[in-house]
Specification:
The chain has 315 residues and is of the alpha/beta class. The protein contains 14 helices and 11 strands.
């Protein structure tokens, strides 16, 4: 069984060219031999093309296979229909050129929420996407989650998972420290999305597999409080065999706590590379190499619905 990293990112030049045409953030500007991404709710950041060459990325993997996604915090999925469709078309075209060591998450346009978005998801999964990467703010509240239900129904019907990833920051600005939104807004989004998913989505879609980035913002640790406040689903959510938690950006203390809450078999290896190093292994630090291998092999293959991982090209 091959090892898998469920959480990496890739910035194809074609996607950046679409953002270069925009006059307002989010937008991209080429300067000093790299791309500068300007955001409305966070400080700008740089994309070095050398970090986003698919062949180089594949050659540098520390696992057998990695899944790449668009960067949901930029808000590409929520742009006006013309822009978001152009971005998604550029993304899917770029995925056709990926080496076999790299799989991909589909992105879908919120502007077409409903059957239009669902149909695009079906087409992407049929074209080879591992599943759909959903910005967590689509599940910000149970009421708002209704808009994502047709999309998630299509994903479940295709036998694919949804990857819940932080979306655009809404409580910050370009002058904040770079760490502010990742340590606050992103965590809060994942936390809310986990509760919403188990309250509003899971009862409707009992077979949908879900992977939450960043240990779901540690939301499972709040299940006792939610239950005390009369949540009917919080404690049951801890035992959900189809909900998984990627370990990206956390260390051994958080991994130990979440494993205690949901079981180590629900953790899956994710690095958020190139934002974070591929070398991080919080599960190995917390529990040893044997459990680290479980989280890199059996668990992600189960989360992705693989009975096997597609054969890779020979070295």
């Amino acid at each position: 069984m091959r090892s898998v990293d469920v959480h990496q990112h890739l910035w194809p030049e074609a996607v950046l060219r679409v953002l270069e045409r925009r006059s307002a953030p989010p937008r991209a500007r080429w300067q000093d031999y790299r791309w500068r991404i300007e955001l409305p709710g966070e400080p700008a950041f740089d994309v070095d093309p050398r970090d986003h060459d698919p062949e180089e990325l594949a050659n540098g993997l520390t696992v057998d296979r990695a899944l790449v996604a668009l960067s949901s915090p930029v808000g590409l999925e929520a742009l006006p229909a013309r822009d978001t469709l152009a971005v998604i078309a550029a993304w899917q075209e770029a995925t056709t050129q990926l080496p076999p060591e790299l799989g991909w998450w589909a992105a879908t346009p919120e502007a077409l929420a409903g059957e239009g978005e669902a149909e695009l998801a079906r087409e992407a999964i049929a074209a080879g996407a591992a599943g759909v990467c959903l910005p967590a703010n689509r599940l910000a509240t149970p009421r708002r989650a209704g808009g994502a239900l047709p999309l998630l129904d299509a994903v479940a019907d295709a036998g694919a998972p949804v990857f819940v990833h932080p979306g655009p920051a809404t409580n910050g600005g370009p002058g904040d420290p770079a760490w502010w939104s990742p340590a606050t807004d992103y965590v809060a989004q994942q936390h809310a999305a986990w509760h919403t998913f188990h309250h509003a989505i899971r009862p409707q879609l009992p077979t949908l597999r879900a992977i939450f980035a960043g240990l779901a913002g540690l939301a499972p640790l709040q299940a006792e409080r939610a239950a005390a406040k009369q949540s009917p689903n919080a404690e049951h959510a801890l035992a959900d065999p189809l909900t998984f938690y990627d370990t990206s950006s956390y260390g051994p203390r958080a991994v130990r706590a979440i494993a205690t809450a949901v079981g180590i078999g629900q953790l899956v290896h994710g690095t958020d590379y190139p934002v974070h190093s591929q070398g991080q292994d919080p599960v190995g630090q917390a529990f040893g190499e044997g459990f680290a291998q479980l989280v890199k092999t059996s668990s992600p293959n189960r989360a992705l619905g693989y009975t096997w991982v597609p054969a890779l090209k020979s070295a």
